[in-house]
User: What shape does this take?
Amino acid sequence: MTPTTVLTIAGSDCGAGAGIQADLKVFAALGAYGTSVLTAVTAQNTRGVDAVLPLPPRTVTDQLDSVLVDFTVRAVKTGMLGSPAVADAVAEAAKDGRLPHLVVDPVLVATSGHTLGVVEAVERLLPYAEVATPNCAEAAALTGRPVTTVEEMVTAAEALAAGGPAFVVVTGGDVDADGEAVDVLRGGGTTTVLRAPRVPTRHNHGTGCSFSAAVAVRLALGDPVPAAVATAKEYVTRALTGARDWRLGAGRGPLDHFGWSA
Assistant: This one.
């Protein structure tokens, strides 16, 4: 049986915890064939980001054309875009209907605090997104309002959904919610609060990348958005749990994408 093809458009992480490398691991773990378009090369590890080299928009477009002319891509996710010019190139492909089931992970700041993207770049893609998956800091940057509580997550999700994406998931891994990891899904006129036990671990590098990649795979396989989001949350919870006691790197380490420690 031929596997379903999913595409990630994002930056490289040489530490392999986030970005393109994490996305490809998620695709494989969930049974999809992963293709990729690099937008930037970064020097990073579990301690942080040391350098970023954005690729020229033409190079991004060339990669995108090469993949789309040869593969039947069923879903696409974006991560770090790097610049408005790259976002414009990707948005043009989305406008032309070439990026089905588009999941936009608005990567703006790395876990270490290093700036990886600009708000203007993300805003160019949001109108074409089937699902947008900002974390609280990214939702705050996109709405211009603080997002530090579950109530503020709901407000942000509703505001962002009104501005273009069919669905918005504000992920709340950094919000203190009485021992729970809370995400807020808005779409179809409905707001849903998703809850799971919080996993105490320093191995949470690439959580947002992995979540959005999992959503894309499930959409490619035919799930409706609410089911895709719920399955992605379950997957990330398992991946965090599996890596809980790992000793990879000295900082915020990667997830257990393949269930090695399950």
The longest helix spans residues 225-242.
